[in-house]
């Protein structure tokens, strides 16, 4: 009798474990854990500025976790966490007539447009090297150019441990993690 009860408990535990594993590994669960909010705005900006929508989504996830009201300790605002001075510079250079620093901090669509324009410029500066672009988005392009010029970092993921700013090293790794996760879960991100 005790042996049967022990077998039933073991079988029940095994069934629960298998169901839990299936639940955790399900696409639905993964998409729930790794959502892409503001998808239309992300895709539109990706298309407009010749960027990878997965990269924009990953940067937003790391910067603000899709919270439009986010403000960093350093004062960066909006879901793409732009410094107000950077946002103002981008607004002027990009010719954004209807966008202000306030709208970048309050309206996700405006922040995505301005942040994507900035990413496009970084992409041009760093000749499409995604790791350098990500580092520059976090640490500033001058720092990244300095690291490259001095041979401190070669701009590769394999050597990210050489990036002198711990925050930027961690930032690159986190963005790449979410970038890969979004590519896996949303290969069709451009489709409605």
Automatic annotation (TrEMBL):
<dbReference type="InterPro" id="IPR023346">
    <property type="entry name" value="Lysozyme-like_dom_sf"/>
</dbReference>
<comment type="similarity">
    <text>Belongs to the transglycosylase Slt family.</text>
</comment>
<dbReference type="GO" id="GO:0016020">
    <property type="term" value="C:membrane"/>
</dbReference>
<dbReference type="GO" id="GO:0008933">
    <property type="term" value="F:peptidoglycan lytic transglycosylase activity"/>
</dbReference>
<dbReference type="InterPro" id="IPR008258">
    <property type="entry name" value="Transglycosylase_SLT_dom_1"/>
</dbReference>
<feature type="domain" description="Transglycosylase SLT">
    <location>
        <begin position="42"/>
        <end position="150"/>
    </location>
</feature>
<dbReference type="Pfam" id="PF01464">
    <property type="entry name" value="SLT"/>
</dbReference>
<dbReference type="InterPro" id="IPR000189">
    <property type="entry name" value="Transglyc_AS"/>
</dbReference>
<dbReference type="GO" id="GO:0000270">
    <property type="term" value="P:peptidoglycan metabolic process"/>
</dbReference>
<protein>
    <submittedName>
        <fullName>Lytic transglycosylase domain-containing protein</fullName>
    </submittedName>
</protein>
């Amino acid at each position: 009798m005790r042996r049967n009860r022990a077998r039933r408990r073991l079988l029940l535990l095994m069934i629960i474990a298998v169901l839990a594993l299936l639940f955790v590994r399900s696409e639905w669960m993964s998409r729930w854990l790794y959502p892409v909010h503001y998808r239309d705005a992300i895709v539109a900006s990706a298309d407009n500025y010749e960027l990878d929508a997965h990269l924009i989504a990953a940067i937003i996830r790391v910067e603000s976790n899709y919270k439009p009201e986010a403000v960093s300790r350093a004062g960066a605002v909006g879901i793409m966490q732009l410094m107000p001075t950077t946002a103002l510079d981008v607004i002027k250079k990009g010719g954004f007539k209807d966008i202000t620093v306030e709208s970048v901090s309050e309206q996700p669509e405006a922040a995505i447009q301005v942040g994507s324009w900035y990413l496009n410029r970084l992409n041009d500066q760093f000749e499409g090297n995604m790791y350098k672009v990500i580092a520059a988005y976090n640490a500033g392009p001058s720092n990244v150019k300095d690291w490259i010029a001095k041979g401190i970092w070669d701009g590769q993921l394999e050597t990210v441990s050489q990036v002198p700013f711990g925050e930027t090293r961690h930032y690159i790794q986190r963005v790449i993690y979410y970038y890969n996760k979004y590519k896996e879960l949303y290969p069709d991100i451009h489709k409605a």
